[in-house]
Amino acid sequence: MRAAVLHEIGQDKLEVLDDIESTGFGPGRVRIRVRATGLCHSDLSAMAGVLPQPAPFVPGHEGAGEILEVGDGVSHLKAGDRVVVCWLPACGACPACKRGQTQLCLAGFMNAGTPNFKRPGGDVFGFAGTGTFAEEVVVDAGCAVPIPDDVPFDIAALIGCGVTTGLGAALNTADVAAGSSVAVIGCGGVGISAIQGARLKGAAEIVAVDPVASRRESALKFGATRAISPDELPDAKQQVTGGEGFDYVFEVVGRSATARTAYENTRRGGTLVVVGAGALDDYLQLSMFELFFDEKRILPSMYGGGDVLRSYERTIALWRAGRVDLESLITHRVPLADINEALDQMRQGTALRTCIEI
What we know:
Helix content: 25-40%
Oligomer: single chain
Distance between the termini: 11 Å
């Protein structure tokens, strides 16, 4: 079968090969025919070595498709079922799951160290234990979440990561208050989803901050009340909040410099929500005095900060009701053979989400 492979960490191009075989099928596992997958910035971060991932590997973790085969012991799925790939499944038995913090379950991360594929040259891993830039993937049954027949594969793929992360940051982690002021720094697919979440919660002012003009224009269509470049943020802070700072600031870039900017633009007693996935060696510096004196809440948001399956269901319900716009998030479509075109679109900031059609 075909899959897009990164041979070594640090390379900026993927090679589409046709000698890949999915591996690991057996009890408790399912084989999925991938139909659509989104390109998430985390894929680029793993390619660059910002996020830890053994290589060679098949990127992709935001996918949807059909069940081809189920292993022994799998009773809730059958061949032909339409599913979204969940890269962070909950085991249901660990301390985090028992506390109701299923987004902190480490079971999915344990899968990342086991190869999902092989080729004549040896084993190939799947990013985050999945690897959806492939025609087929074998995953634990818990990674395959059934979706209703009315949800297209491309929409379901977005729900698998970016939309769930962004919406959840606003709805679950921040629990944005009605009438509040919000700034979102970084307006790709996840940032736009955070904007939609803040709008759903009734935020009065939503300021989108991004260096790319096309993304700023898109942000206004999705609910931002104003869209600015990063160098305009001080003026916006003054105009919107009288210089006090925003009630909520979402950092959706994953860099300490941006997180520091977000902190400085959060009002005293306000909330900074860290959504971007950053590097292990990129440290955010804060003084002990400002932590004490400003009493700003710093809330990291992992995968939307709530129960993943419930978040999927909620997003589908909101989409059906026309309360969130998921179709317009897909600004580009490319076949798997042109995957490097999709990478360029994300690096240049021209795409909110590119759908790779498998």
